[in-house]
Amino acid sequence: MFLLLVTFTRLDIWWSSLLAGPWNDPKGEVLIVLGGSVLEDGTIGVSSYWRAVYAARAWKEGGFKAIVLSGGGGTASSAAESMRDFLVEQGIPREAIRLDIKSQSTRENALFSKTILNQMPGRKVLLTSDFHMYRAYRAFRKVGVDVLPRPFPDVGKRAHGPLGRWEAFFDLVEETAKIIDYYLRGWI
């Protein structure tokens, strides 16, 4: 029964929508983008790639004056550096991009970005995957950074066909466990 539920229903999409919160694509002056994966050779990973794609789209809509990319990892370069290189290739001015390359978790994204963000006036908009927004938004708020959530449909896109639903389901299970961990630690 459970196998059929995950494979043939929209459970993943419903679950990720709960974690994403409002879908109103807020505008602001500073776009904060959280890094995801990066390959060992420094190549942008799949989750970082999609976050960067949606960041480029948000930038091209107009209004943002700066982008803060947050994410370490990788041995050759960080997720933030790989995303920056991609965004520059998409026509975003290099000087508009600030980096946090030390963070290794969502909590560290919030803590380490806070120093950068405190120096930047204007509304801050947080962009990350739909299933990651619940934890990310609350982690930033917990460290005192007021952000507006701007999720993009990560699981929402992957879970439209039976083949993508299981990978999305496992991402949702893992994310829910992380939410519980962050809650118990007092980080959200």
Structure explained in plain terms:
By secondary structure, the protein is α/β, with parallel strands linked by helices. Helix content is 50%, strand content 14%. It has helices at 2-8, 11-20, 46-61, 79-89, 106-117, 133-142, 155-158, 162-185; strands at 30-34, 66-70, 97-100, 124-129, 147-152. β2 (66-70), α4 and β3 (97-100) form a beta-alpha-beta unit. The radius of gyration is 16 Å and the shape is globular. The termini are far apart.
Q: What's this, in brief?
A:
This protein is of the alpha/beta class. 50% of the residues lie in helices and 14% in strands.
Structural descriptors:
188 residues, alpha/beta, Rossmann fold, five-stranded parallel β-sheet, 8 helices, globular
**Spans of at least 5 consecutive residues with low confidence:** none
What sequence of helices (H) and strands (E) makes up the elements? HHEHEHEHEHEHH
| Number of domains as seen in the coordinates | 1
Shape: globular
Approximate strand percentage: 5-15%
The secondary structure category is alpha/beta
- How many beta strands in the DSSP annotation? 5
Largest sheet: 5 strands, parallel
Strands in their spatial order, largest beta sheet: 3-2-1-4-5
Query: What is the architecture at the second tier of CATH?
Result: 3-Layer(aba) Sandwich
CATH topology: Rossmann fold
Total count of helical runs of at least 4 residues = 8
Q: How much is the average pLDDT?
A: 91
| CATH superfamily annotation | HUPs
N→C terminal distance: 34 Å
Rg value: 16 Å
Query: Percent of residues in helical segments?
Result: 40-55%
Name of the level-1 CATH class: Alpha Beta
